[in-house]
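Researcher: I'm preparing a figure for a lab meeting and need a structural model of a single chain. I don't have an experimental structure, so a prediction will have to do for now. The sequence is pasted below. Please return the structure as tokens so I can convert it later.
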Amino acid sequence: MKKNVFYAQSGGVTAVINASACGVIETARKHKNKLGKVYAGRNGILGALTEDMIDTTAESARTIAALRHTPGGAFGSARYKLKGLDKNRAEYERLIEVFKAHDIGYFFYNGGGDSMDTAHKVSQLGQELGYPMVWTRARGSARSRSMSRCRHARPRSTSRRWRAPRRACSFSK
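Model: Understood. Here is the structure written out token by token.
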């Protein structure tokens, strides 16, 4: 049975964070036989806690592709750190509740170390509550490595001219 995907952005936003979102969404669309809808959390993990999620299946392939060239965080981001499971179990249980309600089995969290810690704790609690999930980091091992792969990133050498992207998209309300 195919499960849905939840994607969220965390921390400082760059064009690279949107390129990662584009990669997650486009890849999920290529695997429709295994993956269902891709939901993006509006303002990061807060979107899951408040059930304010964007169903990206409503967006055209062209709009999703435009994410590669969109500055900032298209879905919004949050620098919201969930406390440990022992200190705030209710927030983690709320995430599992929302994920169950939307049949989410895959959690892609685009951010740094705190984001990975959160995703891991959600996965652990999901296992404990009988709702196993797959979680992963939705970016390269280092932002600088991701930037070097983005064809619209500023070149390290000033001898080549950098051009701003032609189109951009936004998923704000």
